[in-house]
Q: What sequence folds into this?
């Protein structure tokens, strides 16, 4: 037996159901799947392999799953901060998007965001935006695993000037990418219950069901949204979506900041996945999602960074740190959300939220080989009594050393192998120069 | 004129009173002071210098000021997390400290923490702990600027088994280090109004006044503390401290999480500095300090990481990100605390809080040469519309490239020049092995 890749000489955190760990772990990969997970006794020979990845005493763990982003919004990273939500959205983001979002800028910015994700240990992301074909091409080339969807709005959007074509454009995207790649999983993305009318939502749901796809939707992000939907429908956003058939086990509800206890029941009973984007929800002052309650109720939950215009980074390690600390102080209870839970949310939890629980999210035989190694030979990692704690309260994305996705080594010793980084950065800077001079 | 060091080819953020910035900045250093601050026109020759530090298109800025830490607690980083406060403190921290805190372990762990600080751009820290002589030796060797104080408690502490000697031990420390180094500034540190009795507090204040030193004290960290002091004295912790003369413009009140409106008035009227340690206060679930209110009231405020047992890192860039995002969501107002304010707090604000506003905290002629450069040629820094925003919402400590303190280059291209890092890490790991096996 010759493996394609063998990981060795690190603390192996499988993040499987029983949180199994091995002091001196070994993982064998054949093609794009994990074929062996174990430990090595001192002096024991390594299995034969075409490539060895030495964790050098660091950590071997599953790649992180970012359940919500708009990768191409890296183009607008830091363009407008610290502003009231409506001014940020209407005076800055919508205007910038209307003017600057083209297939070329989306491709350039998505490449940059994927590079940032890879370099901080994210191996799967779930994205929704415009010109999503360009995002898919960028993801395919970058080597990242991606659940991707073309955004649906009931008003003119970049690339879709006629809103009556919004669902069909999204269906075309699914048609273009379904079964094209082992890493690109197309889906639907309705922006929200307040920007898509009932008919649009129903048509998108039907199309998603027909294609067997995930449907992403922002829900209950702000108090204002809850009031608006309540005025219009007499229901909470979640109750409204349920009443028109939008809540299924193929739905990913993003944010859910203002989910009520009754909403939690609807989410659970319908098997809906939830994506919590803590840093974005803090920065935009949307509110604190009742995440500990979600977990207590047994919901399927993952974490997300959201786009770079509202966070402003794609670092899932930082997201874990924020989520663990925020809920402690919010409940005045240091046990409210512990490090293991944060790690679970960023791996297995996220995988389940986007419907990939059988494929990714942990290091187990038969799952896809989405594996990262962490360099812990640094002052801020010293000493290390508990790797779970350090991954949440100490790790930075910049501690990620190697990244394998679908059996391919995409980051080697902090160098992205799938892209020319100088070129990727230069291309986005060219766009940014134009944007800055007109802003 | 030949400068000792010239910084060039970066965006210069002076963080002076008017937040002056130069697209292509130049800073000239002679000995340990800044002698020239300006900009260069394209093609203009650089001033003559013995050493040039090329920021390579990145950022040149003042080093960060960490106004509260217990450096040597790096020894216990991640030893006990996610626990109720009393169990964390009494079952874990106090026991671990009683057994493992020695001059040798304090020296080893402080060196490690200082390395972490330097590598993440902190040039000044304010520390209080036991065996502070060992901390001072470590700081002196590391090259960091440090306000240091021997901890005072009214019960037996490491190195001070007889509490009646607590103030005199702290005075000895001041005597040993006053005017010994341009970087080591000794002071007093009373642990808190609930662990030090009135007589101890008064004696410490008198001794600090006589030496012209800063007196640090944890105040109003938890609701429990406020209740306890109120029961005992009929006053809030701040009002009680004022009544016994503890609140002066040479006092640094740490935490102030539960400061009332009346307390804010006392803090302001007495010119007390405040240190807010957001990540620690979140992780221990102490509460959210009313920092926007402090700023509105014109208080002198800085940020701190607190020790590694309650954060668990020493990265002040991350601290800025947490502080800006936490207050936005806490007030449901995205304008509650903006990036420039966070940057001010971590530099000028911190300098003023520890009484060094004339010496450090900004890049201005006559101030000490405590300057860092940031490497921005990375995906997560791209594009850069506003460096202030990126320093708060994007930067990681690991983006710091060069660090000059008091005119000395202590970190060059991410390598600490003042310590053998392999040895520093190994030494702490030796201690940690013993601690882990007995924990």
A:
């Amino acid at each position: 037996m010759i493996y394609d890749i063998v990981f060795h000489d690190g603390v192996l955190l499988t993040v499987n159901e029983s949180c199994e760990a091995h002091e001196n772990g070994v993982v064998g990969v054949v093609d794009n799947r994990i074929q062996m997970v174990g430990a090595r006794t001192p002096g024991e020979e390594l299995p034969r392999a075409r490539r060895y990845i030495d964790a050098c005493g660091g950590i071997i763990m599953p790649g992180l799953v970012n359940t919500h982003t708009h990768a191409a919004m890296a183009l607008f990273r830091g363009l407008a901060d610290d502003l009231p939500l409506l001014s940020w959205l209407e005076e800055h983001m919508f205007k910038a998007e209307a003017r600057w979002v083209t297939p070329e800028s989306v491709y350039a910015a998505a490449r940059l965001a994927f590079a940032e994700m890879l370099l901080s240990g994210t191996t799967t992301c779930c994205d929704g935006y415009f010109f999503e074909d360009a995002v898919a091409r960028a993801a395919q080339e970058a080597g990242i695993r991606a659940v991707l969807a073309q955004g649906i709005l009931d008003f003119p959007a970049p690339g879709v000037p006629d809103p009556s074509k919004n669902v069909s454009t999204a269906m075309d995207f699914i048609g273009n990418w379904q079964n094209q790649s082992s890493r690109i999983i197309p889906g639907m993305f309705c922006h929200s219950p307040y920007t898509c009318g009932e008919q649009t939502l129903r048509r998108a749901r039907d199309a998603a069901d027909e294609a067997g796809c995930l449907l992403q939707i922002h829900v209950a992000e702000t108090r204002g949204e809850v009031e608006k939907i309540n005025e219009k429908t007499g229901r909470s956003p979640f109750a409204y979506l349920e009443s028109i058939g939008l809540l299924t086990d193929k739905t990913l509800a993003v944010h859910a900041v203002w989910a009520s206890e009754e909403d939690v029941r609807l989410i659970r009973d319908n098997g809906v996945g939830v994506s919590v984007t803590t840093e974005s929800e803090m920065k935009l002052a949307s509110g604190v999602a009742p995440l500990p309650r979600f977990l207590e109720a047994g919901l399927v939950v993952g974490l997300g960074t959201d786009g770079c215009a509202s966070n402003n980074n794609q670092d899932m390690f930082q997201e874990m740190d924020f989520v663990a600390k925020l809920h402690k102080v919010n409940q005045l209870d240091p046990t409210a959300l512990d490090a293991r839970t944060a790690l679970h949310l960023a791996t297995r939890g996220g995988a389940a939220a986007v419907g990939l629980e059988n494929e990714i999210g942990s290091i187990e035989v038969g799952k896809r080989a989405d594996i990262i190694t962490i360099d812990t030979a640094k002052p801020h990692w010293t000493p290390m009594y508990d790797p779970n704690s350090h991954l949440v309260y100490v790790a930075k994305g910049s501690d990620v050393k190697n990244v394998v996705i679908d059996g391919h080594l995409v980051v080697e010793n902090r160098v992205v192998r799938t892209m020319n980084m100088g070129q990727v950065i230069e291309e986005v800077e060219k766009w940014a120069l134009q944007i800055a001079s007109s802003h």
